[in-house]
């Protein structure tokens, strides 16, 4: 997860940042608690599903697996979620796989069924069966900065570590409760830790990683053989940026193109055949933390920055930004396009919020009252976290279902109400929202 602007300032020898006073911290915590109480009061009207789980340790990464299991005679399906741990001190870290039970559609959700103690709604109330269960824990060396499964072989999982090493695990070769650290492959090429990690959707076994050492490495794990002691070197190392590489992403349809963003404020799109950035732009006024190629519109790219904005770009013309999405109050850390609804983009921030943007609403006229709630393209703002959002993921099977993890150990699984995102005709009465 890219660092926030405040963390970068604290690392600068030339800049001294005054720590918040005890009184300021109390005021901030009080404000956060009041905002959370307001969100909690409105939650039954804003969501069709809410499930909150307090993890033993926070996770910096989360991703839904591509499968789901139906159960005859049950009102739920089982999905799987990939998470990690970020422990303190000498406690053991793990790569973890969890089962998540999501209720099948049950018609209208009654806000009166909201379980305030469990903070749940959506068909869970009254059920004694577990909703979130850790099914496998694989010992990991150091914190799991990021974990992603290979799309062609989801049992194969790569992780970015705090040491700079990249590990590849075949989860089928590990016990449900492993006791020793034994990745199938070690990828050695970075000198510092990183958060950029992405498998190629087109080239099986090809992986990109980006690091604080300013380099990007491309790996081909199909070159692995048992005779080389499970260690492989990158097939290419790219020196494209002048500062920390925060994110790398393969293009979804062009197998030789990838994008990268950096603290040097640039977005670059590189062709692996030449090794040079054919497209480059100073994308923001501050560090660029994340990027996302549109899964269908091949020329559209989104970037998120420490300048608190999300920018939209056209690969055919980097001279001019298409649009800037303004709604966050902190550094934008992560971006993901909706897997089922093409115009929808989600972003998360250090401001503890996840925002859904509807690009079809850009430029729509607003009343002065509507303007107070943000630009017309701001579709929904999730306010269920009281700490920085580390990662989030759209569910590939159930539209609008999302998992989000924050640094306060809380993992939430939720689906925004259909009335809000325009998926049913019912409108929420204004008097019901506090």
Distance between the termini: 34 Å
Tell me how many strands there are: 29
Q: If you compute it from the alpha carbons, what radius of gyration comes out, rounded to the nearest whole angstrom?
A: 21 Å
Average pLDDT, rounded to a whole number, is: 88
Taken as a percent bin, the fraction of beta residues is: 35-45%
Oligomer: single chain
Provide a count of the helices. Answer: 4
- The global form is globular
What share of residues is helical?
under 10%
Largest beta sheet: what is the strand line-up? 6-7-8-9-13
Profile the largest sheet: 5 strands, mixed
Q: Which residues form runs of ≥5 with pLDDT under 50?
A: 9-15, 123-128, 425-434
Protein name: Histone acetyltransferase type B subunit 2
Pfam family, one: CAF1C_H4-bd
Keywords: Chromatin regulator, Nucleus, Repeat, WD repeat
Organism: Arthrobotrys conoides
Task: Give a verbal description of the structure.
The strands form 7 sheets. Strands 6-7-8-9-13 form a 5-stranded mixed beta sheet, with no helix packed on it. It has a 4-stranded antiparallel beta sheet with strand order 1-29-28-27. The radius of gyration is 21 Å and the shape is globular. It is built from 4 helices and 29 strands. The C terminus is likely disordered. It is mainly beta. The longest helix is centred in the N-terminal third of the chain and has 25 residues. Strand 2 and strand 3 form a beta hairpin.
